Amino acid sequence: MAHALTADWYGDPTARRLGRISLNPAVHVDPVGTIMLPLLGLLAGGFVFGWAKPVPVNPANLKNHRQDFLVIAAAGPASNILMAIVASWLLGLVPGGLGASEGVPGVLATFGFAMVQLNLLLAVFNMLPIPPLDGGNVLAGVLPEAVAASYDRLVRPYGFVILIVLMATGWLYRLIGPPLSFLMGWLLS
Fold first, then answer.
1. Which residues contact 32 (CB under 8 A, 6 or more apart)?
2. What is the reported pTM?
3. Per the omega criterion (within 30 degrees of 0), is the bond before 132 cis?
4. What are phi and psi of 62, to 5 degrees?
5. How far apart (Å, rounded) are the C-alpha atoms in residues 134 and 136?
6. For residue 70, what are the contacts with CB-CB under 8 A and spacing of at least 6?
């Protein structure tokens, strides 16, 4: 929803017209990426990987195509970080905090910790500079235009393959583990 709302703010109503500015998860479900692929991963006992329905953005509706698209791409990970901060703050209100282990405080502490961890994981993962992840689009927005076009042309066709190889070899965690651990420590200290 963050991508759709930001695109609308920057002048592109495409996602709004398609009902994508919504907290209803059903409007963001991609049959393959949200249902089939994660289910196959669970059934096969392998890693679970998936995605939500991509948010359509028409760059022709944006005033400053590259800069605006960069902000729209960064909106998703930024919203994950904001949700992690809010969850961390709420976790601090739970009697006993992370140490709570029984009853309602224990359930709230477990849920709060999971919300912080999941949102930070999504933010860090999605900021990897690999198209089609948000980080690939952010990188394209900060590189000089010719370099960005070359990078996109060379890397985008292989983005999913690169991600699968990173997951299968354990390199994905080596890349996202350190920033994830740093952010977790920062928010939960």
1. none
2. 0.91
3. yes
4. -95, 140
5. 5
6. 137, 138, 140, 141, 142
